[in-house]
Amino acid sequence: MVTRRLLDDDKAGRMLVGALLAVAVVVPLANLLAPEGSVLHIPTYTVSLLGKYLALAMLALALDLVWGYCGILSLGHGAFFALGGYAMGMYLMRQIGDRGVYGNPELPDFMVFLDWQELPWFWQGFDLFPFAILMVAIAPGLLAFVFGWLAFRSRVTGVYLSIMTQALTYALMLAFFRNEMGFGGANGLTDFKDVLGFDIQSNATRSALLATTAVALIAAYLGCRRLTRSHLGQVLCAIRDAEDRVRFLGYRVEHYKLAAFVVSAMLAGVAGALYVPQAGIINPTEFQPLNSIEAVIWVAVGGRGTLIGAVIGAVSVNFAKTWFTAAFPEAWLFALGALFIVTTRYLPDGLVGLAQRWRSP
User: Fold this and answer.
1) Contact assessment for residue 284 and residue 326, using Cβ atoms and an 8 Å cutoff
2) Which of 49, 71, 128, 269 gives a 20 to 30 Å CA spacing to 232?
3) What percent of the chain is helix, strand and coil (3-state, nearest 5)?
4) Is the entire prediction scored with pTM above 0.85?
5) What are the Cα distances from residue 156, in Å, to 20, 71, 235?
């Protein structure tokens, strides 16, 4: 009933939910049941690639929540994505046990190589899946709360806030590169064996991860849509359009911005946790500022402030990246820059805005 009300006046949203449900059902079936030589067969590589696209679409959705509806241009959302990914990676590393290169049942291989004698305190509990899932949301949420509380109560806005978020993710990248941090250094966390007892490399597990990511993206879209249509969402839009006026009306603007920022960070963390098992690795390069800037481009291309535009932009731009980096690897960054310029100059409302103009008489 709630889902029906949310999608009653959202034809595009209904199409998105339908498409994601089709992906969650049809793609795994085509991968598992259709013979490899059949035209109906979808390779496991494509299944994993689609799963990563959908996880990145969830990151774009999280960014659109704060940028499109609250006016907070974050250039550091890759940090929240990476923290969620590291939390999941730590769980997957603990599941390796004595199957690692050095056969240590307690310590991951990189700790044995660095001659660590015991598991650090912050790795405790990550052998339990429920605890790891909690950390997937709590770690980025806590970071966003501390950063947002300090920034918003100081009324840091605009380009200054964007630069601070970019500095945050860059600082975390430098920290995670250090071996003594206990997160694998430059190599990160990899060589995962299984998730919840299932072989992570098997076709069935890969298909299950895709279906889980698709369902999670549907839930994230519906949750964001409900939030943006609520009183909180209306206040956020008012803050985006006229922050000083909203403050003069008596609203604690910093509290509303902080709430949106924390929710967005937690959603980005979940996206990172879904991405890592399908990518097979998480390392400090996920923190690099370029990743956060790319997420901004996804949202801009799709159409910010629409939610569905973030999903469309993330999937379409990452598909283009996959093709370009294979066919013309040196040209991808130039193509990405050109895409952003064209979008800013000629498509200020993104692909969703373009479609709306075409439909209007």
Assistant:
1) no
2) 269
3) 75, 0, 20
4) yes
5) 38, 12, 19
Say if CB 294 and CB 77 are below 8 A apart: no
Residue-by-residue DSSP string for 262-273: HHHHHHHHHHHH
Task: Using alpha carbons only, give the angle 261, 246, 162 rounded to the nearest 5 degrees.
Answer: 35
**Count of domains in the chain?**
1
Sign, Cα dihedral of 79, 85, 88, 90: negative
Which is nearest to 17 in space by CA: 223, 271, 214? Answer: 214
Query: How many DSSP H helices and E strands does the chain contain?
Result: 14, 4
Q: In sequence order, what are the beta bridge partners of 195?
A: 198
Each residue's pLDDT tens digit, 290-341: 999 999 999 999 999 999 999 999 999 999 999 998 888 888 889 988 998 9
φ/ψ (deg, to 5) at 195: -135, 125
Neighbours of 195 (CB within 10 A): 18
